[in-house]
Amino acid sequence: MARPSKLDSFEIKQILYEHFMNGMDSLPVAKITGYDIKTVRKYYEEFMEDVQKIANEDLAEHFKENRSRAIYFYDMRLDKLLSEENQLEAIISKIKLSNNNLKKYSALVKRLEQVKHMILDVFNLKEKVSNTLSFSEIIYVEGTKEND
Q1: Residue 64 in contact with residue 116, Cβ under 8 Å?
Q2: DSSP-assigned letter for residue 23
Q3: FRET partner for 33 with CA separation of 20 to 30 A, picked from 25, 51, 59, 125?
């Protein structure tokens, strides 16, 4: 049998694309349409490549947005903690000068230590997120491994 013309090829592609998008497997589609199974599989592979390309682009954008949101969240959290740290240090220095209310002083010092630990934790988390490979970088690295 001769190769289909460009117009016939376009029609075949449209028909098979509808079946593909409806989730039908290639073998039943070949039986229903009368097209050779190899032809159906060839087009299905093309459709799948297109779908994966679009999905990867959307997924890459999703990862990029989530990374940006996480970094923004960590920056906001760091700002609040650093502000609290400054306030606590100012209050502690005032109490230290007046030498009264030892109970309040020790509670504030304890809270200051907690805030400093939280600052370190948030900073470390932000650094991890910032240094994590993006989805597109992972795909690139995986692609170079396969080519080796």
Answers
A1: no
A2: T
A3: 51
Measured between alpha carbons, how far is 42 from 78 in angstroms, rounded to an integer?
53
Domain locations in the chain? 8-147
Longest dimension (CA), the chain: 100
Residue tagged 């900073």 (tokens): 123
Q: What is the pLDDT of residues 107-137, one digit of tens each?
A: 999 999 999 999 998 888 888 777 765 555 5
- To the question of pTM greater than 0.70 for the whole model, the response is no
Query: Who contacts 33 (Cβ-Cβ below 8 Å, separation ≥6)?
Result: 15, 16, 19, 40
pLDDT digits (tens, 9 = 90+) for 68-86: 878 888 899 899 999 999 9
